[in-house]
Amino acid sequence: MKAEIQKVEALEENRFVCVHWEDGSESRFPCVWLRDNCQCPDCFLDSAKARKLLFEDLDVNIVVKDVALTDGKKISVTWPDEHTSEYEAEWLKKRCFSEEARAEMRKDLFLPERQYWGSDLQLLELPFEEVLCSDESAYKWLCTLKKVGIVLLTGAPARQGELVKLGHRIGFLRLTFYGPTWQVQDKTDANNVAYTTGKLSFHTDYPVMQHPPGVQFLHCIKQTAAGGESEVVDGLHVANKLKKQNPQAFQILSSTAVDYTDVGVDYCDFAMQCKQKIIDIDYRGQAVRINYNNATRDTVLDIPAEKVRPFYAALKEFDDLLNSREHKFTYKMKPGDIVTFDNWRLLHGRRSYQSGATVTRHLEGAYADWDVVMSRLRILRKRLLGRN
Questions:
Q1: CATH fold of 125-385, please?
Q2: 164-196: per-residue pLDDT in tens?
Q3: Residue 270: its pLDDT value, please?
Q4: How confident is the model over 128-149, as pLDDT tens digits?
Q5: In this structure, which of 20, 144, 169, 253 has its CB flanked by the most CB atoms within 10 Å?
Q6: Do 195 and 185 touch, CB atoms closer than 8 A?
Q7: Do the Cβ atoms of 26 and 19 come closer than 8 Å?
Q8: Phi/psi at 151 (nearest 5 deg)?
Q9: Is the pLDDT reported for residue 103 higher than 80?
Q10: Looking at residue 248, what DSSP letter applies?
C-alpha cells in the first residue's frame, strides 16, 4: 500500500490528529489510540509484535502537545510528558477509522467471503502430495476451504496416519475424547452412531463441546462396493433460506439453547454435556455456525412446555430444507481420498451400507481448529502474495 502524507494537524482541542493524504482523502486518529499504539521500544516489543505499554499507565483523556510531518512518510507526535511517538504513513493508512478502511482490514485479516452452493457444488480436487509439498497448492486448498467450505484431496496412501501429515502441514490437529485421530468403521458395541453401518443423517460433529472443532478431515482407507455414499449440505446457505422463508422458525433456532450429551469410553472415559443454539448468529443477526447433531441431542429439553412443539416445528422445517434435493450434494469417496470441510458450516451424512464378516468400509478422521487453519493461511498468503 503506497501512502503519502500531504499535511498533518491536531483537531478538536488536540484530541484528534488529522492526516491529509496526497490522494485527497483524510483520516482522523484519536489521540488515545495513537498513544496506546506507540511503536517505540519502550512501548512496543517488535520481536513479539506485542504492546509493552501498561494499560494502567494510559491516560484515556490524553491530547497531543505537538505533531509534525517527516518526509511525507511519517508523522511525529510529542505528548504532554515529552514522550515522542512516530508512525509510518502506510501503517496509519491501513488502520484508518473510515468504514471503507475497516472493511478492507476485516477482509484482509479474516477473509470473510463465502461462496454458497447446493446440489450444484463444483467440488475442488487437489493432489494430496502437492498440498503437502507446494505452498501454492496448500494456499489454494485453504482459501477454497474458507470460501466454499469443502475441498477433496486425492491420491493419499490408503493407510492410517496420513492425516497426521496434514495436521503438520497446517500446524497441529485437535485432540478430542475420540483421540488425535479416530477410525470410522463398523464396530461391535459402537460408542458412536458413526461406528455402525446405518444411515447417518445430516449433522455437524461435536456440538456437545462448547467450542466444536472448526474443520474436519476424513480419509478413505477402504470403501464398500455398495452404499456408503457421502452427502454434504451448506448449512449457512440453508439457514439463510430458512430466515427468508420463515423468520420465526429462524428466530427460534437461533435463540433456543438445546442440550447435547455424549457419554462413553474411547481415548479416555468422558461425560460431555453442553447447551448450543442450532443456529449461531453474529451481531448483525447473520448465521455464522450450525450446531446440529440429532444423535447426540439430549432427551433433556430445558425450555417451557408450551415452547416445545414450536421448537420441533422449526427444527423440522430446517431439517427438511437440509434434505431437499436442491441443497444436498452426494459423492462417493474412494481409497486415498481425503475430504476436508468446514464443520461450523457444512452438515455431512452417509448412506447406509451392508455389514460383512470383515470391515468393508474404513475412514480415518481428525479435527483441526479454525484458529490453526487461519494462522497457516495468513502465513502462506504473506509468503506468496506479500499480504498480512
A1: Double-stranded beta-helix (3.60.130)
A2: 999 999 999 999 999 999 999 998 888 899 999
A3: 97
A4: 999 999 999 999 999 999 999 9
A5: 253
A6: yes
A7: yes
A8: -145, 140
A9: yes
A10: H
Long-range contacts of 298-302 (CB under 8 A, 24+ apart): 298/258, 298/259, 298/260, 298/261, 298/273, 300/259, 300/261, 301/258, 301/259, 302/257, 302/259, 302/275
DSSP string, 198-247: S-EEEE-S-TTSSS--SEEEEEEEE--SSB--EEEEEHHHHHHHHHHH-H
Give 74's DSSP letter.
E
Mean pLDDT of 230-253: 98
Q: For the chain, what is the total number of helices (H) and then of strands (E)?
A: 10, 22
The pTM for the full model equals: 0.94
C-beta separation of 92 from 19 below 8 A: yes
Taking the C-alpha atoms of residue 128 and residue 304, their distance in angstroms, rounded to an integer, is 50
Joined together, the cell numbers standing for residue 37 give: 499504539
Average pLDDT over residues 35-46: 98
105, 108, 109, 115 alpha-carbon torsion, rounded to 10°: 120
In the block, cell 477473509 appears at: 111
The CA distance from 360 to 354, in Å, is 8
Write the pLDDT tens digit of every residue in 299-311.
Answer: 999 999 999 999 9
What is the rounded distance in angstroms from the CA atom of residue 217 to the CA atom of residue 343? 10
Angle (CA) 310 210 206, round 5°: 80
Portion of the chain with pLDDT greater than 70, in percent: 99
d(CA 368, CA 171): 9
Question: How many Cβ atoms sit within 10 Å of the Cβ of residue 103?
Answer: 11
Q: What is the pLDDT of residues 79-102, one digit of tens each?
A: 999 999 999 999 999 999 999 999
Which among 141, 22, 125 has a CA at the least distance from the CA of 72? 22
Is residue 368 within 8 Å of residue 210, measured between CB atoms? no
In whole angstroms, what is the distance from residue 353 CA to residue 378 CA? Answer: 41
Amino acid code (one letter) for 224: T
The greatest distance separating any two alpha carbons of the chain, rounded to the nearest whole angstrom, comes to: 83
**Average pLDDT of the residues in 320-329:** 98
- Based on the number of CB atoms within 10 Å of its own CB, is 352 exposed (0-12), middle (13-18) or buried (19 or more)? middle
State yes or no: pLDDT of 1 exceeds 80: no
User: What CATH number should be reported for the domain whose range is 5-105?
Assistant: 3.30.2020.30
357 pLDDT higher than 90: no
Domain assignments of the chain as residue spans, ordered by start: 5-105, 125-385
